[in-house]
Q: What sequence folds into this?
């Protein structure tokens, strides 16, 4: 392992959010009415849920926050407590989108409520393991890269949200592989 990163997932990509919501069986509506306990309000983006209430996206600086009426768990039964299941599904879809943009292979495994994506770099054979937890916590671990080769995929980590901590291992400080140079001998 060359480094590992802890990330607090933030919703920054509406395509990834829409994909996550649709896989959960919900539709994201633009300029829709969001139903709350006290009535309905028009919002820029609304996740339409079965039952009495919906979820709106509220724009914060460079990301969106979930805005919902979590009264009596009507919303929680669909997207998890405080939206924790939706945040996990979003992180998975965002990582998948970024992996494909970077030409990486993707495999997915689900165990005990944790979704793990393994992204494989076809050029180096290096792997990026992304563990997505409920509640929006994400951990990234890289292995099989020599030196700082793994940093060429830092954009994937940054796209997932706020980076809390990056820890480098000994492998990170190894010299990067030398590129082969063709030597041409000329006899005069």
A:
């Amino acid at each position: 392992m060359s480094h590992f990163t802890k990330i607090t997932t933030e919703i920054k990509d509406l395509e990834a959010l829409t994909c996550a919501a649709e896989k959960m069986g919900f539709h994201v509506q633009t300029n829709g009415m969001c139903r709350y306990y006290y009535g309905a309000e028009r919002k820029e983006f609304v996740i339409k849920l079965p039952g009495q209430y919906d979820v709106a996206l509220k724009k914060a600086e460079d990301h969106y926050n979930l805005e919902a009426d979590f009264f009596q768990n009507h919303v929680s039964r669909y997207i998890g407590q405080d939206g924790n299941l939706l945040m996990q599904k979003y992180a998975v879809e965002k990582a998948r989108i970024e992996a494909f943009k970077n030409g990486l292979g993707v495999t997915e495994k689900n165990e005990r409520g944790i979704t793990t994506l393994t992204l494989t770099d076809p050029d180096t054979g290096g792997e990026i393991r992304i563990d997505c937890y409920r509640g929006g916590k994400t951990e990234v671990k890289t292995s099989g890269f020599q030196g700082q080769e793994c940093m060429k995929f830092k954009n994937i980590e940054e796209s997932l949200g706020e980076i809390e901590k990056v820890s480098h291992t000994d492998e990170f400080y190894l010299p990067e592989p030398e590129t082969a140079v063709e030597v041409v001998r000329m006899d005069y």
The chain has two domains: 3-10+86-173, 14-82. The beta strands are 3-9, 27-36, 39-48, 55-59, 64-68, 105-111, 114-120, 127-132, 137-143, 161-168. The two ends are 49 Å apart (CA to CA).
